[in-house]
Every structure is written in structure tokens, then in C-alpha cells.
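Notes for week 9. Today we move from apo structures to complexes. The key idea is that a small molecule is not decoration. When we ask for a structure prediction with zinc ion present, the ligand SMILES becomes part of the input, just like the chain. The input block below holds both the sequence and the ligand string. Read it once before you look at the output, and try to guess where the molecule might sit.
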Amino acid sequence: MTLAAHHLAAGTAAVLVALWLLRSRWTYAYPRAALILWQISSLTMIVAAVGALLGFGLAPYGRGLLPALLELPLHATELDIWHFAAVTLGLALGGWLVVNQLLCLRSTARARARHRLLLQLVARPDTGALVVDHPVAVAYCLPGRTPRIVVSAGARRLLTDAELAAVLAHERAHARERHHLVVAPFQALRRLLPNSALLTRVCATIELLVEMCADDKAARQQGREPLASALERFHANGSGGTPAGALAVADAPVQARIRRLRQPEPSGFPVAWPVACALTVTALATSVSLFAVPL
Ligand SMILES: [Zn+2]
């Protein structure tokens, strides 16, 4: 039971940090720092939830989780119904989450592969991007081992040279910083629970923070105003649909990003961030190590 209590404490710490992140505005000024906390706290919540269920269920064995799990096939009949149900639920939850992530990764990889093939047929390379001859204004990054930056003829007509350079810098930032790997676990969770309003809100937050990271990188290279006006033009023009598995320049709430680029709110780095980071890292390390500790 001590193991389950430790996991519950670690999970509670992670939940508190996630709630703080959801309510904070400093995250718009420091999206990268916020994403680090989101990733650690989310992983902690998942490991702790599985660990708490297994910790409770395997408590009668009086051993660490992994040694007890290895014993389970031989001594499962020694558990009462509640402990057995907790073990079953813990294993099912862990397996379900892993399988769902793998299935989502596979379907996304297939969609991207299909799209890469299509681009080979219809796109032509120009000024560091693949240009698709289509009137709708779109620009996006198709991630992968060799990422593709795609821009439509409509977008090239819509934007000035400076705006186009800013948009391409934004897409290159997505590709270079592997942002698709940041959003993928959260999108997989949302696919698992599509009706969860909280999960939808968390996913939207993560996607917005990722866009802001790419905005910051592009703004440092090309200036804030060209990117802001490019976003404004995309928004006014109505951006086209983004292919599955791609990251588009104008997907996330555009007004918030334009406002942030033009009128950045002066915000000092939150003094609580190192504390929250240390708390979540400790919680995650505790939860992971409890799987191996032979208590
Ligand atoms: Zn983007």
C-alpha cells in the first residue's frame, strides 16, 4: 500500500502543476518552458496512475512492482477480487495507452507517406520549399526523417516576399525542433478520449504553445511584423485544410498569436518554474523508480 500512496502523491503533484499551467498566462511569453513542464507532468500522471493501481493490487505480495508482476502468473489466485481487479485495470490501462500511441504513430506515418508520394507528383521545389500549384493559401510542414516545407501558389500570391520568408522560417522551426513529436502523444490521448473537454483543452494548449515556439524562432530570424501580417492575411483569406500529420502555419488560434507578436506582454520568467520543474522531475523519478524498488 506504501507504493500506491507514493504513486498517488507523485500523480497529485503532477496534476497540481498541470492545473497551474492551464491557468497561467506566462506560458505565452515562455512557451518552450511551459511545454517542458507539460511533457514531464503528463508523463508523470500516466506513470503514477498505472503505478498506483498496480501498487494497490500487488500490495499483498509485499514486494516491489516488477518482482511482484513477475510472480503474478504463479500466484494470481492468492489475490482477492479487489486487488486482482486493480492489477487488471493497471495492466489494461498501461497496455491500452502504449498500443494507442503505437497505432496513432503508425496511422500518422502512413498518412505522411501518402502525402509525400502525392507531393512528388504535384509539387515543384522552389526557394527552399515545395510549391503546389493550388489557389488556396496554405503553408505547412510535413514532418518526417526528411521534412518537407510546402507552400501553395495561392499563399505565394497572397504574401509579400518578407511575409513568405517569415512563414517559411516558421515551418522550418517546426521541422528542425521536431514539434510533431511534442504534440503526437497528446493527440493520441485525445483520439483515445475524443469527448473529454479537459483533454481537448490541453491538446489545444499544447498545439498553441508549439505554434508560439515556431513563431518566436521565425520572429528572431525575420522580424515580428512580417510574420504577424502573414498570419493576418492567412486568417482574413481563410486558411485551407491541413493534411493529416502536418503542422500548418495558421492552424492554432491566430488572433492570440498575432496579438502576441505585435504587443508582447512584458512578463518576467516565473520564479515558480524551477520549483515546479524540480517537483515534477522528482515525482516522475519517484514513480518510475518505484517500479524497480524491491520494497
Ligand atoms: Zn505552425
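Residues 1-79+266-295 form one domain.
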